[in-house]
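Example 394, ligand 2-acetamido-2-deoxy-beta-D-glucopyranose.
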Amino acid sequence: MAYGGALSLTTTLFMIAGYYLALKTQSSTLFCKDGDFKQFLIKNVPVVREKYLPSIFCFNGYVHTAVAILFRGITLPIDTVNYERENLMLNDGGEVAIDWRYPKSDGPHSLITVVILPGITGDSQVEYVRETVNELFENGYCSVVFNYRGRGGMRLKTARAYSANNIEDLTEVLKHVKSKRPNSPIAAIGFSMGGILLGNFLMSNEQADKKYIASGVLISLPWNVTQASHNAESSWLMLQMSENLSYHLRSVIDKNKDVIFNQKNNYSLNYNRIKQSNTVRQFDTEYTIKIFNYTDVYQYYKDATLNGKLQRIKVPCLGLSAADDPFLYFKDIPTGEADERSNVAILVTSAGGHVGYLDTFWPFVINKNFMMRLVQQYLDSIMVDNNYDQFVSS
Ligand SMILES: *[C@@H]1O[C@H](CO)[C@@H](O)[C@H](O)[C@H]1NC(C)=O
Ligand SMILES: *[C@@H]1O[C@H](CO)[C@@H](O)[C@H](O)[C@H]1NC(C)=O
Ligand SMILES: *[C@@H]1O[C@H](CO)[C@@H](O)[C@H](O)[C@H]1NC(C)=O
Ligand SMILES: *[C@@H]1O[C@H](CO)[C@@H](O)[C@H](O)[C@H]1NC(C)=O
């Protein structure tokens, strides 16, 4: 007992020391070309001028990410959300669920629709999505979460599941949202790989032609997917997180084995090899690239990578990335490109982890965290009075 007590005291002191050491070096930098959009953000989104101070338990990016992934639901008692579900049949016979949270009453934001794209294994029930939807609901917005194929409790109808750069499903979802709420401008928030999909959509001809999305928010993106896949396998702790992600990916295959492995499909899939995938890269190698007709996983990652392509985004977009995100180091965040863009800004905080941003000193209290303040301040300013129109680049 005494030994255990001494150990935990040492651990606590170590954490506090680490925390104060970390605090001294905190900073945030907004990467964007000097001009109207950057000035707009500095004026209307005061959080971009704040230092981000992490929770005491999150003294480095790895721990922060692990805490956020494993304990967010415990540390932040996030209310359940009463969604209204809609099942959407897709052109190729697939099906996805979209979960609506309609505004409680008419107000200044009730006409705006916010489409939310969770991370690769997420759905409308993961903590950071519920947290966001609750926040948007409180502020009078209409939100709708896109659950990818096989997610949100849905079964697959065909062998096809998630891709980071195939935008066909998202296009159908947006078309549907537009048809239901034709006069409603759409903002979209993408988390992690969901943000990669959103980024790819924003660069697409579909977006250029139909202008579905008025503005985007890109949170904790593995901007360079190739590099992120290397980082995901670079240490013991990362391999534990990779194992957990691949477990969630493999479970979709298990639940839908009958649909995926029937004689009508000819994807040369090998169930045992998929089962043995311990990282996202191995899973993509055995499954995703076969469904989406890539011969090489690195070609897929290269196509999905957003670095080097930011000039294709025409609408105003705000990114939030942490320099200590263990999935992507600072050098791989496209800060240089953002500095050249007059409509794309990336706020880089020195801490925050991967979809972390747990920021009360003591995280076991309900408070509005940095990420939520950023989303709210940005949408409140960019989505009103058609402000987004001012910042569309040619
Ligand atoms: C992405 O990362 C890979 C691996 O480090 C690198 O080879 C590639 O050049 C990067 N891509 C871009 C567009 O920066
Ligand atoms: C992954 O994490 C979840 C909690 O997020 C847990 O329920 C699950 O058992 C973990 N799986 C593995 C294989 O670590
Ligand atoms: C199935 O795939 C194999 C190898 O890719 C090919 O040779 C064969 O013609 C395909 N069969 C059908 C029915 O498409
Ligand atoms: C992949 O190729 C097959 C056979 O040519 C085709 O039926 C399928 O639609 C392709 N899938 C995608 C996602 O392009």
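Summary: The mean pLDDT is 88.
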